[in-house]
Amino acid sequence: MERFKARNIFFVVVIGAIIFVSFTKEIGFEKFLLLIENANKLFFLLVILFNFLNILVFTITWKYLIPANISLYKLFTFFMAGGFINNITPTFGTGGEPVKAMLLGKETGTSKAECFAGVVSQRMLNMFPFLVIGGLGVALLFSKPEIKLGTAELLAIAFSIGLAFSLFGLIIYFYIRKDKLSSFVNSSIRFLAPFIGLVKKGFDQQAYADAVQESINSFHGGLKNIHDNKHGLVKATLFSFLGWIFDILAIYAVFLSLGETHIHISVLIITYTISMMSGWLPLFLPGGLGIVDGTMAALFIFSGVPAEIAIVATWLYRLVNYWLNTLLGGFYLWLSLKPK
Q1: How far apart are CA 329 and CA 139, in angstroms?
Q2: Model pLDDT for residues 154-170, shown as the tens digit of each residue
Q3: How many CB atoms lie within 10 A of CB 265?
Q4: Cβ partners under 8 Å of residue 169, min gap 6
Q5: What's the pLDDT score for residue 199?
Q6: Among 64, 138, 152, 174, which is 20 to 30 Å from 104 by CA?
Q7: What is each CA distance from 90 to 61, 191, 304, in whole angstroms?
């Protein structure tokens, strides 16, 4: 496990170095450093503040969806620890969810399936405000007659939105139809059984399928308890909206720190949503590292932001949103796993 984490961290550092070299080469190393040096430090502190508020609000969202009585600070540390795993493992941005559930179950004595139900429910719930805000960005974009989009750009926006809604719809479908989820999981086990048998001697497909079915039953029981908590769901949804807004404000604060004050809100929202969704696609890249950075910088440049500002703004935002959060998440994971 330690070797696995060390290898993943090394891989992340290498990708980060490649991104830095690529960005600095694009506009020149001296100009890159000059723009960072001249950035308004107070506005950059706002970036860090909005990033912190984003994480805090999403932690509060999670707290409304779990029955366990636990302090907000402890839950915050688990959220950060899960974020660390998400950022260093190429698992569709979900590798840290079982870790969050494990830490929560260990702390509160709640069943892992019920804890995992709370974690997954938060991810499902967070998708709805994300899509609503993305749709608002598209509406604002089309309300600006001076912004002209070509066929390729319109297709890219339509594909991104369609992909997000499809994933959200699939999650909801499996949530509603437990039988379909069970069927899908069992089909996957049958398909993967020959491969698992090659690396795990004595693999019992039926016993494994029975254990998975029991977990699905417990998981759906946890989801039902959350669904019955209407008051908590409403509050969690409102806080989720707030969380996404704080993250977009963090990007805006980056541009303000660089003296770029004329960027349109629709450009911010659409670039943000498409960039975040682009990070879901490459399963081999941890935390969308490289893909999110490149997509965000390219979209800002395409939208008319000067190339040097777009590149530095993207790098500064990801410095906080990805690298700072990963560093803190690693610390909190170590703290959570350290023997007491």
Answers
A1: 36
A2: 565 666 667 666 766 76
A3: 14
A4: none
A5: 46
A6: 174
A7: 25, 22, 32
Cα–Cα distance for residue pair 244/139, rounded to 1 Å: 17
User: Within 10 Å of residue 78's Cβ, how many Cβ atoms?
Assistant: 26
User: What residue type is 33 in one-letter code?
Assistant: L
Which residues are within 8 A (CB) of 275 and not within 5 positions of it... i.e. 6 or more apart? Answer: 292, 295, 296, 299
Say which DSSP state 283 is in. T
pLDDT (tens digit per residue) in 312-336: 999 999 999 999 999 999 999 888 8
Query: Could you give the CA distance from residue 216 to residue 316 in angstroms, rounded to a whole number?
Result: 41
Torsion of CA 66, 72, 78, 81, to 10 degrees: 140
* Vertex 91: Cα angle to 89 and 193 (nearest 5): 120
Angle, helices 265-278/230-257, rounded to nearest 10 degrees = 110
Q: Print the domain residue range for 86.
A: 2-337
Whether 290 has a pLDDT exceeding 70, the answer reads: yes
Give the Cα separation of 156 and 154 in Å (integer). Answer: 5
**pLDDT exceeding 70 applies to what percent of the chain?**
66
Q: Tell me, rounded to whole angstroms, the distance of Cα 119 from its chain centroid.
A: 13
- Output the pTM of the full model: 0.79
Report the distance separating Cα 75 and Cα 65, nearest Å. 12
273 with 160: CB under 8 angstroms? Answer: yes
User: Long-range contacts: 237-242, Cβ < 8 Å, 24+?
Assistant: 237/125, 237/128, 237/129, 239/57, 239/58, 239/60, 239/61, 239/64, 240/57, 240/58, 240/61, 240/125, 240/126, 240/128, 240/129, 241/129, 241/132, 241/133, 242/57
Q: Which amino acid is at 34?
A: L
Distance separating alpha carbons of residues 315 and 23, to the nearest angstrom: 8
| Rounded Cα distance, 246 and 267, in Å | 16
Overall number of domains in the chain: 1
